[in-house]
Structure formats: structure tokens, C-alpha cells
């Protein structure tokens, strides 16, 4: 039997977690969202500890079993240099950069608003945009908004961000949905953000994820129903043009980050593998 198990959710984890619990193997469940998912709530019943991203996530989970660790992310997400990012995307070091993340499958509403925002900001020679559109975007906007220089602005569009750490490193601000991984990355990198929660997420967990960062002063929230190119362009301009605004939001975002989350989880699992349940919970 293994010395310990880590489960990240999903129904496929259930048989293994139950088997581990029957054998007495310590199980750690990772929950990155502010609202624990249905399957993780079930897995938590068989776990010794649930590693959560915030105290809010502990609500609804077995009492006394949660530990705030943050959500582990890859080290390369937050260790790349600004110069490395600028080289990777062919950017101008003298301009400020906005990173727009549409997700691996794309987000039609967000992508459309981003393209419209770029068109509205076309005259800005101090701005460049990296737009990750995802594989699900059909490219309908390409005829309207070609990649490359558009009047003054520089626009770089890519399907995927294979080097997302480099993208964060050169970004002055980020526009994103509010999944657990995205927020863990944004805060670990200390980037100001414009957050657009996906409105159909289970238990509205994306809005709940965003709430803590917005309350801390590290992000601006734009509800999906209000998202248009005009609104997004206005929010981007407000971040860039108000003196000190980027720095203030970035510092607040960094204060919420846990780049050491992976180390915390490893330490927790190591301790579990050598301790009794009473020692861990006590």
C-alpha cells in the first residue's frame, strides 16, 4: 500500500480514495475553489486532510480536517523574467502589456469582447496585448482584428500559451476567467487583474473565487452579463492611466498569493505518512 494518497477531485478518484481509506492509507484531497466541488465533498469524508486555498472553502467540509495550503502551481509560472517574456512574444519593452486569457477551449464572450476592446484601444502606442483565444475559438474575429500592429497598438494572438509563465512575467495586467488555477497563478505572480467569472460554473464558484481577491483590492470584477468591448476597453484604460493603480492592485494580489503551496502540500503529505490521524488533526 502507498504511504499516502493525493486526490484532486473527479469521480475517477473515488474508488482509489475509498480503497486507500479502507487500507488505512492517509488521503489528502486538494480543493482550490472557494466552494468545494460536489465530488470533493464526497472524497473529503474518506480523507485525513483537505488542503484548501482559503478558510472560506472549509465551510461544508468535515470539521477539523482542513488545512489552508493554497493551490499548488508549477514553479515556472512565477519564476520567469520580464525580459524572457518579452522575447518569447516579440514585444516592445517600452510598452505596457495586457494579457487576456480565454482558456484552453476559449471563451466566446470574453474573446469577442477582447477583440472589440483592442479595436477601441487601437490608437494607443503605449499598449500591447497578448490574447490567448483557445482552441475553441473559430477565428471569426480575425478578419476584423488582424494580429500584429493595429494603428498604435500591438496585438499578439495565440491559440495556447505553452509558456504561460513567460506571459505572466511580461504582463502589467491580466484579464481572465476565475478558475482556481488561474487565480492561484495570478496571485502568485502578483498581477493586477480584471476578472470575469464564468456565470454557469457549478455553485457559481468562479464568482466566489473572485470575491476574495476583489475584496483584498487585487482585482476588478466585471460580471459576464456586463462584459462588452466598450466596458473592457474602459477597464483596461482605467488600470493603465490612473497613477499608481497597477502597483496598488499588484501588491494586493501578491499578498493573496501562495507560491509555496506545493511545498506546503508536500510537507503535509510527508507528515501524514508518518503520523497518526490524531496527530495530524490535533
Automatic annotation (TrEMBL):
SUPFAM superfamilies: UDP-Glycosyltransferase/glycogen phosphorylase (SSF53756). This is UDP-N-acetylglucosamine--N-acetylmuramyl-(Pentapeptide) pyrophosphoryl-undecaprenol N-acetylglucosamine transferase. It comes from Candidatus Segetimicrobium genomatis. The keyword Chaperone does not apply. Keywords: Glycosyltransferase, Transferase. It holds the Pfam family Glyco_tran_28_C. Residues 2-50 form the Glycosyltransferase family 28 N-terminal domain. One of its GO terms (biological process) is carbohydrate metabolic process. The keyword Glycosyltransferase applies. One of its GO terms (molecular function) is hexosyltransferase activity. Residues 97-265 form the Glycosyl transferase family 28 C-terminal domain. InterPro entries: Glyco_trans_28_C, GlycoTrans_28_N.
Amino acid at each position: 500500500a502507498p504511504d499516502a494518497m493525493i486526490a484532486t477531485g473527479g469521480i475517477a478518484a473515488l474508488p482509489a480514495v475509498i480503497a486507500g481509506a479502507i487500507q488505512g492509507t492517509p488521503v489528502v484531497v486538494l480543493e482550490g475553489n472557494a466552494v468545494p466541488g460536489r465530488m470533493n465533498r464526497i472524497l473529503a469524508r474518506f480523507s485525513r486532510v483537505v488542503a484548501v486555498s482559503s478558510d472560506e472553502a472549509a465551510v461544508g467540509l468535515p470539521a477539523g480536517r482542513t488545512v489552508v495550503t493554497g493551490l499548488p502551481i508549477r514553479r515556472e509560472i512565477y519564476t520567469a523574467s520580464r525580459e524572457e517574456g518579452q522575447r518569447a512574444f516579440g514585444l516592445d519593452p517600452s510598452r505596457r502589456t495586457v494579457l487576456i486569457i480565454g482558456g484552453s477551449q476559449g471563451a466566446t464572450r470574453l474573446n469577442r469582447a477582447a477583440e472589440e476592446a483592442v479595436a477601441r484601444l487601437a490608437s494607443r502606442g503605449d499598449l500591447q496585448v497578448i490574447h490567448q483565444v483557445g482552441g475553441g475559438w473559430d477565428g471569426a474575429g480575425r478578419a476584423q482584428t488582424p494580429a500584429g500592429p493595429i494603428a498604435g497598438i500591438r496585438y499578439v494572438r495565440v491559440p495556447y500559451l505553452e509558456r504561460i509563465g513567460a506571459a505572466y512575467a511580461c504582463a502589467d495586467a491580466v484579464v481572465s476567467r476565475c478558475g482556481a488555477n488561474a487565480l492561484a497563478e495570478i496571485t502568485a505572480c502578483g498581477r493586477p487583474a480584471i476578472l470575469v467569472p464564468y456565470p454557469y460554473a457549478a455553485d457559481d464558484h468562479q464568482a466566489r473565487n473572485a470575491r476574495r481577491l476583489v475584496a483584498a483590492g487585487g482585482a476588478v470584477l466585471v460580471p459576464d452579463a456586463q462584459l462588452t468591448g466598450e466596458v473592457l476597453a474602459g477597464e483596461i484604460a482605467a488600470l493603465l492611466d490612473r497613477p499608481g493603480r497597477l502597483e496598488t492592485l499588484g501588491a494586493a494580489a501578491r499578498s493573496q498569493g501562495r507560491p509555496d503551496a506545493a511545498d506546503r502540500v508536500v510537507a503535509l503529505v510527508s507528515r501524514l505518512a508518518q503520523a497518526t490521524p490524531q496527530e495530524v488533526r490535533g
